[in-house]
Design goal:
By secondary structure, the protein is of the alpha+beta class. About 20% of the residues lie in helices and about 30% in strands. Strand 1 and strand 2 form a beta hairpin.
């Protein structure tokens, strides 16, 4: 039979409190949106599309996208399939752009 002394209770209490603090501080932290915007050029005579503070995967409406300008503070990956599936066509660093024949989604 094990005896619960004051020392054992203190250690158990501190362990439980540490575990609870770790769950509260470390778990479930949402991903932050990239600061800035991604600008997409489709074809001549169509307006540019602006995506302010993108977060996660962004699907694009048509396959007529040719140039992506990354004006965010983190890299953006460009995919030729919707839902950011497969291997990225390119990783576009902040304050740079990339050209592709077509692309359907990007992730920030």
């Amino acid at each position: 039979m094990r005896r619960f002394t004051a020392k054992n209770r203190l250690v158990m209490g501190l362990t439980a409190a540490s575990f609870a603090a770790a769950l509260t501080l470390g778990g479930g932290v949402p991903a932050q949106a990239a600061g800035g915007e991604v600008v997409v050029f489709q074809v001549d005579a169509l307006p540019l599309k602006h995506y302010p503070n993108p977060q996660g995967c962004t699907n694009l409406s048509t396959a007529l996208h040719h140039v992506l300008i990354n004006q965010t503070d983190r890299p953006v990956k460009v995919y030729n399939l919707p839902n950011c599936i497969g291997v990225p066509l390119a990783t576009v660093q902040p304050d740079t752009g990339a050209h592709a024949d077509t692309f359907l989604s990007f992730s920030a």
